[in-house]
Amino acid sequence: MPLKTKRWNDPIEPPDDGHRLLVTRYRPRGLPKSDETWHAWDKDLAPSVELHAAAYGKGDRLTLSWDIYRQRYLKEMLAQRAKIKALADRVKAGETITLLCSAQCTREDRCHRSLLKALIERQLQDPQPTAR
User: Fold this and answer.
1) Which residues contact residue 36 at a Cβ distance below 8 angstroms, ignoring those fewer than 6 apart?
2) What are the beta bridge partners of residue 5?
3) Which stretches of 10-126 are assigned E, i.e. beta strand?
4) Which of 19, 35, 70, 123 would give a disulfide with 88, using CB separation of 3.0 to 4.6 Å?
5) How far is the CA of 35 from the CAs of 20, 28, 30, in angstroms?
6) What angle do CA 83, 43, 36 make, to 5 degrees?
7) Where are the beta strands (DSSP E) in 1-132?
8) Where are the domains of the chain?
9) Is-contact 73 47, C-beta < 8 A?
């Protein structure tokens, strides 16, 4: 399947990266628009402001465990079923999509981009996406 994940600052591999979609809550700070490495940005596919803050222990919050973070992110994505289906339809049609996350997100296996990728892949197999 032509669905990939990277960090936004990872090297671009044209044409292998296809459509590069930034799926972060916040745009990278201090980056001029001319230096953007993505074609589109969809913050609705990122963790909510509250979940992002909880995940990074901002304010008085403790950092969430991966299991709790995963559950909460998947629950939030239930509201994004139409966007997930649209991405799956594009992949099914043969388009390559690369989901991009933060430069600081070095562990793909502990990043929402891997969860989002799994949701899109599940949609390709099952037309009714669920947060499992």
Assistant:
1) 22
2) 99
3) 19-22, 40-41, 97-101
4) 123
5) 14, 11, 10
6) 110
7) 3-7, 19-22, 40-41, 97-101
8) 3-125
9) yes
Sheet of 97-101: strand order equals 3-7, 97-101, 19-22, 40-41
Per-residue b/e over 109-130, b at no fewer than 16 CB within 10 Å? Answer: eebbbbbbbebbebbbeeeebe
Write the DSSP symbol of residue 99: E
Nearest to 24 by CA among 13, 32, 36, 14: 36
Tokens of 105: 């997100």
What pLDDT tens digit does each residue of the chain (132 aa) get?
599 999 999 999 888 999 999 999 999 999 999 999 999 999 999 999 999 888 877 666 567 888 999 999 999 999 999 999 999 999 999 999 999 998 888 787 889 999 999 999 999 997 664 555
